[in-house]
Write a structure and sequence with these properties.
There is one protein chain. The chain has two domains: 195 residues, 3-Layer(aba) Sandwich (Rossmann fold); 174 residues, Rossmann fold (3-Layer(aba) Sandwich). The chain is 34% helix and 16% strand. The chain has eleven helices and 13 strands. A seven-stranded parallel beta sheet has the order 3-2-1-4-5-6-7, with helices on both faces. Helix 1 packs across helix 11 and helix 5 packs across helix 9.
Length: 385
């Protein structure tokens, strides 16, 4: 198949970007022709991608609601210069399927309209509620004509099904991980024992402030343990200030964005992984990555996270993100080394049996195959004029 993937900030850090990167790479390995069209990367958040095929940087305009002050928004989206260019690129590449992974809801109408005009079947992947924009649920109506919908978790499907009836039929395709990737881990990079977290440093989404406060509660009882946090974002300085104010600035290490071999090393040698979430995670690929390394996890019981973490078996799920609950979970992990080790083994076994990127891509191939013929690539270029 000729499969065109459309997404946002493909070369930037992020869970959706990780999904798209591995999907594109696996589709290519399976013998399909793949191209990725993406908006520009976010400055300072770039990452190395696994996919080495055709990549083009294009604008994907967001739709805005029509108001009395902005009646021009009634003008068809295909007449915007960016939308016309996107449509022209689709026509030139001639895909059989467009796989859209735009998570910003306001971009759904653009992609749907352009695919309709180009006469190609579109499959929209649904992630989470974070992308809700100025059009709000009005943007979802554009997905009624999609050839198929997918969702990253049962929780994600349930969320969208309450807003868009067509989402009730979305195929749930859970994210994955490379089970062999931990073997590429570099040497241990931190000399002391540590708890590890990998996240975007954005307190609107991640309760990293509560994590640091919880670590401050237990730090005196475990002077041999540090807290390492990988990632970057808008609230880095705030988190550094919280750690300094709690008197543990020398034991909380914000290590920034690290290369993949070092990241796998950080997962693999951690006592456990902890990342509390303020907003429900569509899934939380970082948990799968930690589990693939045999590292048990602490997470918030929300979104799709309970679908991959079995409480008491592969990790601990918290009902809330209070520092007290986080401190209790961290204390239990540190005081129960034998149970913690068994949790890690069960976590690794679960990931190896159910969550590989190859299995993930195979399910997408099934969806794409079922959509062939939903539309035919027949479009008169004169209609652009």
């Amino acid at each position: 198949m000729r499969i065109l993937i459309i997404c946002e900030a493909f070369r930037s850090l992020g869970g959706v970007q990780e999904v798209v990167d591995n999907l594109a790479a696996e589709l290519e390995l399976a013998g399909h022709q793949v191209a990725v069209y993406s908006t520009p990367s976010v400055s300072g958040m770039e990452r190395t991608t696994r996919f080495r095929g055709e990549l083009r940087c294009l604008g994907i305009p967001s739709r805005r609601p029509v108001t009395l002050r902005h009646l021009e928004r009634l003008w068809p989206v295909r007449f915007s210069s960016e939308a016309r260019r996107l449509m022209g690129e689709i026509i030139a590449w001639r895909p059989q399927i467009v796989s859209s992974h735009c998570w910003s809801w306001d971009r759904f109408p653009t992609v749907a309209d352009v695919c309709q005009q180009a006469g190609v079947a579109m499959v929209q992947s649904l992630y989470d509620s974070w992308g809700r924009g100025k059009m709000d649920t009005g943007a979802l109506h554009s997905l009624r004509g999609a050839a198929a919908l997918t969702a990253l978790s049962e929780a994600t499907r349930g969320f969208f099904a309450n807003l868009l009836p067509a989402a009730r039929e979305a195929r749930v395709i859970t994210g994955g991980v490379d089970p062999d990737a931990p073997h590429s881990a570099g040497p241990r990079v931190h000399p002391r024992d540590y708890v590890f977290c990998a996240a975007r440093l954005d307190l609107r989404h991640k309760a990293l402030d509560a994590l640091i406060e919880a670590f401050a509660d237990i730090a005196g009882q475990h002077p041999e343990v540090d807290l390492l946090i990988s990632g970057d974002g808008r609230d880095r300085a705030t988190l550094e200030a919280i750690a300094a104010s709690a008197g543990i600035g020398d034991r909380v290490k914000l290590v920034g964005i690290v290369a993949r071999p070092e990241l796998w090393s950080l997962y693999k040698h951690a006592l456990f992984f902890a990342m509390p979430s303020r907003m429900p995670e569509g899934l939380g690929l970082v948990f799968l990555e930690a589990m693939a390394c045999g590292t048990p996890v602490i997470a918030t019981r929300s979104g799709g996270t309970p679908e991959i973490i079995d409480h008491g078996e592969s990790g601990l799920l918290l009902e809330s993100n209070t520092a007290d609950q986080l401190a209790w979970a961290m204390r239990w992990m540190l005081n129960s080394p034998a149970e913690r080790e068994q949790m890690g083994k069960r976590a690794r076994q679960k990931v190896a049996s159910r969550f590989s990127w190859r299995q993930f891509a195979h399910q997408y191939i099934e969806v794409f195959s079922s959509c062939l013929g939903a539309n035919t690539f027949e479009f008169d270029p004169a209609e652009q004029r």
